[in-house]
Amino acid sequence: MSLFSFFQKRNTAPAARERLQILLAHERTNGEHSDLVNLLREEIIQVIARHVKVDGEKVAVKMDKGDQFSTLEVDIELPADLERKKAA
Amino acid sequence: MSLFSFFQKRNTAPAARERLQILLAHERTNGEHSDLVNLLREEIIQVIARHVKVDGEKVAVKMDKGDQFSTLEVDIELPADLERKKAA
């Protein structure tokens, strides 16, 4: 199944809005290093906030931890006019 | 379909290896701002390289641009001992 179809299936938003979705999955071979996804979460959101105006209330973060996988889903609704910031 | 199953289905690697996968999708309402995914790509990989030793040859990057979606897939095979770096 291609990535496009994964996102299109998930997109049930009535009015098409500008959105940015990040999915992060860390597949581990052993129980160690299981906080990598958590570590990356803040910094990835900061990278995005450097390029587009992000409204904290329009950012949904979901984390899951299974035996073998840790996953992070970040779903950001972008402002309609997508105010772009000059790269810092 | 949950995120776990998306990654598990895609994982055909014979021997379980430590892997980090990032999927980024930018859903646009108009043709503008279509380079956001490209802009974020380098910086997100840099964020990861700050936390784990990344072997350039073990990083697969795939970008797709449709009318409404731009997507980025980054697939990183992590070193087995997952040498962790102290955050810079």
TrEMBL record, chains A, B:
Query: Could you tell me the keywords of this UniProt record?
Result: Cell cycle, Cell division
Keyword Glycosyltransferase annotated? no
Question: Can the keyword RNA-binding be found in this entry's annotation?
Answer: no
Q: Which InterPro entries match?
A: MinE (IPR005527), MinE_sf (IPR036707)
Q: What GO terms in the biological process aspect are recorded for it?
A: cell division; regulation of division septum assembly
What functional role does this protein have? Prevents the cell division inhibition by proteins MinC and MinD at internal division sites while permitting inhibition at polar sites. This ensures cell division at the proper site by restricting the formation of a division septum at the midpoint of the long axis of the cell.
User: Record's family?
Assistant: Belongs to the MinE family.
NCBIfam families hit by this protein: minE, PRK00296.1
Q: What is this protein called?
A: Cell division topological specificity factor
Q: Gene encoding this chain?
A: minE
